[in-house]
Amino acid sequence: MSEEQNGGLSQLEETAYVPRQKVDRLAGVAAPVLEDTDYVAPKEKKSHLADVAAPTLADDDYVDTRKKHSLEGVQAPVLEDTDAYAAPKPAAQPSGFAPTPLTQEQLDVLAQQRAQSGQPPYTPEQIAAIQKAYMDRQAAAHAASQPAAPASQPQVQAPVLEESTYTPPVKEEKRPQVSAAAAASLLEEPAPEPERRVSRFNEADLEAAKANAQKRAIEQSLNMTTNVDKAESRRLMNELRMEREAELAKKGFTVVIVLMILGLVAAVALYFFSIREFKVDMDNGFYSGVTKVMTYTSFGLGVLSVLLILRVNFVKKLGSFLFGLMTLLLLFPGLPMLMQKKEEGMALTAVGYGVALVLCFAVCFTLSTSEPVNMFYKRREG
User: Fold this and answer.
1) Cα–Cα distance between 305 and 364 in angstroms, integer?
2) Which residues contact residue 342 at a Cβ distance below 8 angstroms, ignoring those fewer than 6 apart?
3) What gap in Å lies between CA 371 and CA 250, rounded to an integer?
4) Tens-digit pLDDT profile for residues 186-242
């Protein structure tokens, strides 16, 4: 039961604890006993100078035993004039700057840029002026880059030694080399592009790129030229077309005048043919009706012939229709009607018939198909 309560652990037995006694390892070991000795104090050391008396120095017998400096007795150089001391002026350092003129390569670059802009090449006077302006700007830029001069100091003269053998070394100044880009910037011109270095392994690609670029430039110039040519050709064609239309309209005016006269003559001839009498034994109501139509239409044709000059398109179409209608009526039943006219004056009747037929057909055909006449009415409407 106790094991179950203790979680299956066995109960410890009760034992009596007995502490172990500590063993003294020094037991039986006796310390050494020092012998009794008498203490003897050390003897006092006698001084060797006990009976020596120090000498007494008098006031005048003092001798300085310090070590003398090796430069004692050496007299410093005497200045010639100690009152007129003045510091030497700082020697003006040689600037060593000399403006460099433009090289021939830079002048060639400027000439190419000027040629590309469409301007005439530089004259010798202009080149001399450019060189002068370039060198002046170099000098101005160099002067601006130098540090400002220090404020004026009171003049102090340095002491002048009797013998001066010191010579200061002369400093050599290197002249600044002005690059091509700086030269172009001083002249306010675009700097020349640095030469592009291409590896020898890319020479084939470079040649191909140059060929492609040249081909594209040629194609662009051709396209531009083609576009310009097309626009110019279109403008010229429009001008030519307008001039041709004006000439046709002018010619059409003349044709319309002629048609007006011919229309009046056709109207008179038609009227003359329509009033000619038929034979006595001819009694046909259809012929009588056609005769009345021709008579009244002849007056209309005369009026329309005069109105053609007004350049009204409706009048032109109506005139073309009536003249065509009269042409058909003159063919049939006009031709059988001619045969039924009286024999007296048949020649005049036939002439009137023929003139009316021919002129009506001519006026109708011209009004319908003539380009000058059409242009004459078209420009009026535009």
Assistant:
1) 11
2) 276, 277, 278, 279, 349
3) 11
4) 555 555 565 666 555 466 777 778 888 888 888 777 666 666 677 888 888 888 888
CA 1 to chain centre: 106
Instruction: Give the C-alpha distances (Å, rounded to integers) separating 208 from 188, 204, 211, 221.
Output: 35, 6, 5, 20
Six-digit token string for 366: 């011209």
Could you give the CA distance from residue 294 to residue 329 in angstroms, rounded to a whole number? 8
d(CA 314, CA 317) in angstroms, rounded, equals 5
pLDDT value at 292 more than 90: yes
> What is the 3 state secondary structure string of the chain?
CHHHHCCCCCCCCCCCCCCCCCCCCCCCCCCCCCCCCCCCCCCCCCCCCCCCCCCCCCCCCCCCCCCCCCCCCCCCCCCCCCCCCECCCCCCCCCCCCCCCCCHHHHHHHHHHHHHCCCCCCCHHHHHHHHHHHHHHHHHHHHHHCCCCCCCCCCCECCCCCCCCCCCCCCCCCCCCCCHHHHHHHCCCCCCCCCCCCCHHHHHHHHHHHHHHHHHHHHHHHHHHHHHHHHHHHHHHHHHHHHHHHHHHHHHHHHHHHHHHHHHHHHHHHHHHHHCCECCCCCCHHHHHHHHHHHHHHHHHHHHHHHHHHCCHHHHHHHHHHHHHHHHHHHCCHHHHHHCECCCCHHHHHHHHHHHHHHHHHHHHHHHHCHHHHHHHHHHHC
Question: Which range among 7-11, 297-301, 319-323 shows the weakest confidence by mean pLDDT?
Answer: 7-11
Measured distance CA(341)–CA(69) in Å, rounded:
177
The greatest distance separating any two alpha carbons of the chain, rounded to the nearest whole angstrom, comes to 217
* Contact yes or no for 265/359 (Cβ under 8 A): yes
Pull the structure tokens for residue 282. 């001819």
Q: Give the Cα separation of 324 and 36 in Å (integer).
A: 186
Q: Is 305:263 a contact under the CB 8 Å cutoff?
A: yes
For residue 347, what are its two tokens?
């020649």
Q: Which amino acid is at 217?
A: A
Two tokens at 19? 């502490």
